[in-house]
Amino acid sequence: MGTMRAVAAFDGLPVDDPASLVDVELEVPEPRPADLLVEVRAVSVNPVDVKRRVRGGPSSTPRVLGFDAAGTVVATGERVTGFAVGDEVYYAGDVTRQGSNAEYQAVDHRIVGHKPSSLSFAEAAALPLTGLTAWESLFDRLGLGHRSDGTLLVLGAAGGVGSVLVQLARLRTAVRVIGTASRPQSAQWATRLGAHAVVDHRDLVPRALEAAPDGVEWLFSPFSTGRIEEFARIVKPFGHIVAIDDGAPDLTPLKPRSIAWHWEFMFTRAAERTPDMAEQGRILEAIARHVEAGELMTTVSTVLDDFSAAGLRHAHALVESGRTIGKVVIARP
Ligand SMILES: NC(=O)c1ccc[n+]([C@@H]2O[C@H](COP(=O)([O-])OP(=O)(O)OC[C@H]3O[C@@H](n4cnc5c(N)ncnc54)[C@H](OP(=O)(O)O)[C@@H]3O)[C@@H](O)[C@H]2O)c1
Known about the structure:
Layout: E1 3-9, E2 22-27, E3 35-45, H1 47-55, E4 63-64, E5 69-76, E6 88-91, E7 104-108, E8 112-114, H2 121-125, H3 128-141, E9 151-154, H4 160-172, E10 176-180, H5 184-192, E11 197-199, H6 204-211, E12 216-221, H7 228-234, E13 235-243, E14 260-263, H8 268-271, H9 279-292, E15 300-304, H10 309-320, E16 327-331
Parallel strand pairs: 9-10, 9-12, 10-11, 12-13, 13-14, 15-16
Antiparallel strand pairs: 1-2, 1-4, 3-5, 3-7, 3-16, 5-6, 6-8
């Protein structure tokens, strides 16, 4: 099918090294029978891009990073249903395959949704990875539903995942949402997305217990390291925590209150080819309907237009700061 421009990592180099992400020319991927071939119009950068860039060892094979994407279908495999050439789509992809930092990407149609028609490609590219993580955390791992009440504490409420999770919790449950943020601009962002209260995570236990004196039933954590004893003081007996970050924390402090710990990893369904893998496509369609109904906002905060190694290094540097609000997106002009 010819060649395409892409951005690849070959080594785990720091982002200020121009060799950390480089421009390459690669073969356009051949779609497998269940794949869509998508012309990528916009991507967002997530902390997982940074982690995979840094942790990838030396390799002679170009590793194309990038998970979130929005674009247009240009070819379909023979087993694809529900999509046609010309459809505008968005997806978070599959960590076991080449990524979206390229002109074209092949992706299994079961983990793809139609792009919300009310959003640009840039606005849509902000949503899939964080939307799927937030949805699976709330509804699959914590089992929350329209009738659920109690209080949910959302760490990193202005971050990529938190920004969608706060909105979905307000939209699809009856829980009271307390977000955490440590700066006026992140606190304002979390409030605008629907948090009932915002507390500073630098003084977590007293601030959270001021907002919820009896403790919380539910806790979402993208930043768990060193916090388990604090969580044990904030979460009520028989409460639930869902965590999305890395590491193997010692959970012993949770035992006296019988607090349950859930892991959420957005890539599990695609990487393990689970029987319910197509659920991710359905979640993306449901998120698109909420967006089109004006119930859920895109979380994009920064749009860069340099879809190249230099532009992606810039975006990685912003995400690496750990202080981004919402999402950083790169769109083709
Ligand atoms: N398991 C999965 O499927 C999955 C999916 C997505 C992300 N993740 C992981 O989850 C983590 C967060 O991802 P993200 O995209 O939401 O991050 P992000 O957008 O980079 O989060 C940035 C926000 O987090 C807040 N923050 C920074 N350090 C914090 C801390 N120690 N405690 C509480 N809040 C803190 C900051 O708010 P303030 O400036 O107000 O403090 C900032 O606005 C990353 O490690 C990522 O790899 C996992």
